[in-house]
What does this fold into?
Amino acid sequence: MALVTLTIDNRKVSAEEGQNLLQVIREQGIDMPTLCHLDGLSERGGCRLCVVEEEGSSKLLASCVTAVRENMRVTTGSDRLFRYRRMLVELLFAERNHVCSVCVMNRRCELQSLALRFGVDHLRYDPLYPRLSTDVSHEKYALDHNRCVLCARCVRVCDEVEGVHTLDMMGRGVSCRVIADLNQPWATSRTCTNCGKCVQVCPTGAMYIKETFSAHGEKRPDLPKRIRDGREKHTWGG
Amino acid sequence: MSSAASKKIRLATVWLSGCSGCHMSFLDLDEKLLELHEHIQLVHGPLVDRKDFPSDVDLVLVEGAVNNEDQLEMAALLRKGSRVVVALGDCAVMGNVPAMRNGFHAGNLLEAVYAPEGEKEPPGRDSRGEVPMLLPAALPLHAVIPVDVFLPGCPPDARTIGAALTSLLKGERVVLGEGMCRFG
It folds into this structure.
């Protein structure tokens, strides 16, 4: 495999040609924030939290969907990037109804942690307060659209790891929703295997195991990688 | 008023649409309240027997979302009478639980809850009634008045309130410690 040399935050780094920039950045020990990325799933470039600046370009690059190139010079943590990331987190809060205090994932939620990390102490944008439903038809799991950030981790794990593609997205922009099969109550899905991987990878309380008390949700976002490593590399590390 | 008392920081607290949990958390400062007492004079709030909002307040802690016309008036009044306004807790900071009604029409909501049979006019729907009129949406404090400091949390814990008050009493900018500034 050919190697390329690039510069990350003024540090010379070598990487394999075509390697994912986010991965190379993380290998450097840089704590890059992400939301839609999850090890073991395909990249989506949806949340834009992993954006970086590239010298000579005014455009920001989502590092998760950028391949490394010879001689590229990237900055991962400027004031401008911090401001944009903070703005993204605030907009995610403003788009739906995120009420941390009554959520099953309170204090274990990735969106809440991001707000903490970026010092979001209030929202500078007027919240939309959309009226959204919660699908509680499934015997074991619930899907609360109020808390969904449309990261599509559930959709990808359902397709790429469980292999059934029960979940998908419908609509565009603020009308976008995660749906089961042909937009029907989850319990009526003929394809769902009830495996619950979607619940385990959800970064917020949008998907949860029913009858979980407030702040008592626990997730296993490490599952996709573990399952794939077992399947593909026959390694079963913890 | 003695000269010692006049040098004290005049602190007020206000309880809008919230559960009083933020005030409880303030009381959880426990013995630290005694230290605070050396520096502050509590001039208004649920813990003080005084109806009107004074005009020369140094610092006001506001709990709760702005939910009805009376609270809207109160918000304007407290802003006018205070140098530093602190939004205390998630309801004041971002609406929180009171704002969960915002996706619904306020009038229909009042009817569904207080007059389900439609036999009487529900309270809070008429500005001439005894109950203050419900606003179309429960709003965070900064949506209606400029806010100087935000202390999120449901409730913000006593240690967060203590740290913020310590800075504010010294006239310093509030910089909260690791993990103190969080929703929920």
Q: What stands out?
A: Chain B has one domain: 3-98+137-169. The helical segments of chain B are 3-7, 21-27, 32-39, 69-81, 90-94, 106-114, 158-169. Chain B touches chain A through 26 residues (CB under 8 Å). The longest strand of chain B covers residues 9-15.
